[in-house]
Amino acid sequence: MALRVYNTLTGTKEDFVPIEPGKVKMYVCGVTVYDHCHIGHARANVVFDVIYRYLRSLGLEVNYVRNYTDIDDKIINRANREGVAYDAISERFIKEFDRDMAQLGLLLPTSQPKATEHIPEIITLVQTLIDKGFAYQMGGDVNFCVEKFDPYLKLSKRNLEDMQAGARIEVDERKRHPMDFVLWKEAKPGEPFWESPWGKGRPGWHIECSAMSMKYLGETFDIHGGGKDLVFPHHENEIAQSEAASGKPFVKYWLHNGFVNINSEKMSKSLGNFFTIKEVLDKYDSEVLRFFLLSAHYRSPLDFSDQNLTEAETGMERIYKALVAIDETLASNPATGGEEIDASSLGEAERELFDKSGSLPLRFREAMDDDFNTALAMGHIFDLVRCVNRVLSEAKERSNTLSALCAQVKANIGKIADVLGIFTSEPASLLTRLKDRKASELDISVEEIERLITERAAARKAKDFKRSDEIRDFLLGKNIVLLDSAQGTSWSVK
Ligand SMILES: Nc1ncnc2c1ncn2[C@@H]1O[C@H](COP(=O)(O)OP(=O)(O)OP(=O)(O)O)[C@@H](O)[C@H]1O
Ligand SMILES: [Zn+2]
User: Fold this and answer.
1) What is the DSSP letter of 69?
2) Which atom of ligand 1 is least distant from the CA of 38?
3) Domain ranges of the chain
4) Contacts of 367 (CB under 8 A, 6+ apart)
5) The pairing of beta strand 141-144 with beta strand 181-186
6) Could you report the per-residue pLDDT of 420-471, keeping only the tens digit for each?
7) How far apart are CA 485 and CA 255, in angstroms?
8) Which of 135, 210, 441, 448 has the fewest CB atoms within 10 Å distance of its CB?
9) Cα of 166 to ligand 2 centre, how many Å?
10) For the whole model, what pTM was predicted?
11) pLDDT at residue 445, rounded to an integer
């Protein structure tokens, strides 16, 4: 099966055929850098990071551009509130964004252009639109004339007349059509500005993405991405500006991620119902957050709640525990390396594991080829882990075959890990990290737990089972579960 992607432009899943064989040009709208990023922003960026990684894993050469919107009303407002220059705000939040993305394990895009570093390209594009009759000057502003661009609203499939009728916003009478949007904004006194043929001003939001995407990727490119909320007006306006200027199709595939919701409402700054990436990473491991964000298909809504993150943590822990068990099996009886597994000699459970592990790369590819279905891909990993647990718990001895099977599972999960950017940690240390995090929320210290475990071992040795049970129950009351084995006693948080 070849890769198929859901294209918002056609409303269908289509075969993905790059314009130039072997190469993919992809632009994703970045953040407006006026505040800390929330989990909705994390989702948009993680989703396209995985799409980027998957395309690369298919052997495609991907030119991935993600911008920073570093001039905007929201940035100016915050700068005024804090009494600093606009670029003190944008620079601060670019640094914060970069730090958040690095924590979430994102690969760097090929280019990360900033709007303010592309003013000449923006002015040239606006001038071209005026020269071609698609834009007009209105005082110190320049507007795009939507009626001149016939396919306007082809992405969101809205109707201009209906929208006009429905528009209750106060409309500037000087506009030729109420839906005309601004390409260049005249600077108000005290606002940052750049010189232009229309006076001192700054670019509108939509034009920057047309100018930067076409500069880095050409007039027509393969993929344009962003959150669903950008379909209208942002992407619709990008299409209008770019296609009106170039006379060519702008983008072949439009991909949009679904929202992170809280109580069925979009997480957003304006609603105030948001959690920043930093806040969440204070509490949860970054791999847990990434795991959570990829646990749903990228177009589906994703409900954010403490409970859902805790469930993601438990799910990830289950997989890592299996990876630790695999490592322990390999340590106790290393696979001699490269040995063939004789399938006919396997018992029923081993046979199932052998089959599921062997077919994992193919099933992963099928899931991802179906519009990047990371949820299904993760389901395949859980399925495999169930088989691993069964085989390891039923195995009477650590045989060479068992080690060879474990080595195969480890290698095949490893291949997927690189594309999803999860399961990449050293398993034992990840489990320790999770345990430490949970322990930090307990009302008992790790030292105290370990002291009690030592005391309990001594009590058991002295056959003082009353004291030993007392300690176990006391710890259980603190949500600590003890597990006795031949190697000693280990503990985990319930
Ligand atoms: N709740 C969300 N779920 C998924 N993606 C989101 C969410 N909120 C924003 N995004 C996406 O993040 C990217 C950056 O958005 P942008 O900087 O324009 O956000 P914003 O409009 O400032 O955020 P907010 O919506 O909170 O005001 C866009 O692709 C946007 O669609
Ligand atoms: Zn954009």
Assistant:
1) B
2) 26
3) 4-282, 306-427, 442-493
4) 373, 374, 376, 377, 380
5) antiparallel
6) 999 999 999 999 999 888 888 888 888 899 999 999 999 999 999 999 999 9
7) 51
8) 441
9) 25
10) 0.92
11) 87
The rounded Å distance from CA 230 to ligand 1 centre is: 8
How far apart are the CA of 434 and the centre of ligand 2, in A? 37
Q: Is 95 marked within a binding site?
A: no
Ligand 1 neighbourhood includes 269 CB (under 6 angstroms): yes
Per-residue CA distances from 359 to 93, 352, 354, 382, 392 (Å)? 44, 11, 9, 14, 20
To the question of domain 306-427 being in CATH 1.20.120.640, the answer is yes
Indicate whether residue 268 lines ligand 1 (CB < 6 A).
Answer: yes
- pLDDT at position 251 is 98
Token pair 């089972």: residue: 465
Closest-CA residue to 129 (of 238, 249, 253): 238
User: Of the candidates 30, 185, 54, which has an alpha carbon nearest to the alpha carbon of residue 111?
Assistant: 30
Ligand nearest to the CA of 38: 1
Our CA angle for 337, 340, 346, nearest 5°, is 115
Distance CA 135, CA 127 (A): 8
Give the span between the Cα atoms of 208 and 236, in whole angstroms: 14
| pLDDT tens-digit map of 27-48 | 999 999 999 999 999 999 999 9
Q: Of 274, 264, 282, which Cα lies nearest the Cα of 100?
A: 282
Q: Which of 63-72, 161-170, 425-434 has the highest mean pLDDT?
A: 63-72
- Ligand 1 and 259: CB distance under 6 A: yes
For the record, the structure tokens of 148 come out as 């001149």
CB atoms within 10 A of CB 416: 24
Q: Is 269 annotated as a binding residue?
A: yes
Cα distances (angstroms) measured from residue 254 to each of 43, 358, 368, 453: 17, 34, 17, 57
HEC profile for 164-221? HHHCCCCCCCCCCCCCCEEEEEECCCCCCCECCCCCCEEECHHHHHHHHHHHHHCCCE
The count of residues in the chain is 494
In this structure, the residue with its CA closest to atom 17 of ligand 1 is 31
The strand pairing partners of 137, in sequence order, are 142
Of 229, 261, 267, the one to substitute when testing ligand 1's pocket (max ligand atoms within 8 A of C-beta) is: 229
Tokens of 51: 């799409």
Asked if residue 209 belongs to a known ligand binding site, the reply is yes
Class of domain 4-282: alpha beta
Could you give the CA distance from residue 148 to residue 150 in angstroms, rounded to a whole number? 6
Q: Is residue 20 classed as helix, strand or coil in its secondary structure?
A: coil
Q: Does the pLDDT value for residue 339 go beyond 70?
A: no
Residue 234 assigned ligand-binding role: yes
DSSP annotation string for 301-315: -EE--HHHHHHHHHH
Q: What ipTM, to 2 d.p.?
A: 0.97
pLDDT value of residue 437 = 87
